[in-house]
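Human: Not sure, check this?
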Amino acid sequence: MNIRTLALALLLAASPAFAADVDGKWKGMIDTPNGPVEVNYTFKAEGDKLTGSTSAPDGTAIPIADGKIAGNKVSFSLTLDFGGGPITFNYTGEVSPTELKLHTAFMDMPIDFTLKKA
């Protein structure tokens, strides 16, 4: 095995150590035409898989789906029903030690917000 192959193998083996710490509870606000709305998420990293949930306005947990982690990047989806049938929101984001910046869209309008560790 040459030195490049060894270095690549060591880098790939260590890559989970570089993953951002997304585990735990996160809080933030989304600006809406009716004013800011508080949002709460709970995340758990399992290797490169992201699981967790957010809270509906009535307090019930809505699980995230298709959660992935790649370094400090996250992605997941949420399916919500506003009474007219389910709508799936696809999220992408970037985690730092103190915040998680998320992006999604609704009816082609971007929604960007920041969560802080609770």
In short: Helices lie at 3-14. Confidence is low (pLDDT under 50) at residues 1-18. The two ends are 46 Å apart (CA to CA). The chain has one helix and nine strands.
